Amino acid sequence: xxxxxxxxxxxxxxxxxxxxxxxxxxxxxxxxxxxxxxxxxxxxxxxxxxxxxxxxxxxxxxxxxxxxxxxxxxxxxxxxxxxxxxxxxxxxxxxxxxxxxxxxxxxxxxxxxxxxxxxxxxxxxxxxxxxxxxxxxxxxxxxxxxxxxxxxxxxxxxxxxxxxxxxxxxxxxxxxxxxxxxxxxxxxxxxxxxxxxx
Length: 198
Fold this sequence. Notes:
Distance between the termini: 72 Å
Structural class: mainly alpha
Radius of gyration: 24 Å
Largest sheet: none
Shape: globular
Order of helices and strands: HHHHHHHHHH
């Protein structure tokens, strides 16, 4: 009927057709449900793709399969974002680790550092902070510039929940602190921030 009236027929809905769609709730809530649906759809595509490759025998893999199996750093970071929104922390960690292993991505290390700090994993947070700082040439100079906000926030979060002494003990167990992280510890002492001992 649209082509007969001189209007081009398209598959995209017009603004009028969108308005006719039945709303479940308020428009903003419809948008949230739609976003959640899209996240879940992408998440399950990711999981089914991984399961398909995991079930294949190595000698069955073709070059096309190997190309499909290769995932870029950006895609790993997107997957981590989806898993984080869905609150699946093990998949967040797995995706961020894959991105960090692929290219030593500062975004991946920052994400891991934030995740570990929120979960209270002291050693893992400090290791991720070291790796994050090592991604930038400026932090290899002596004296280094002030630690980035992400690093300070992560360390302050650890200190506030575990106490300064426990965080410093964990750092000593790992090895010598990065000079920028050492500066954060000194600032914490000067500011008399001790946190709460559990």
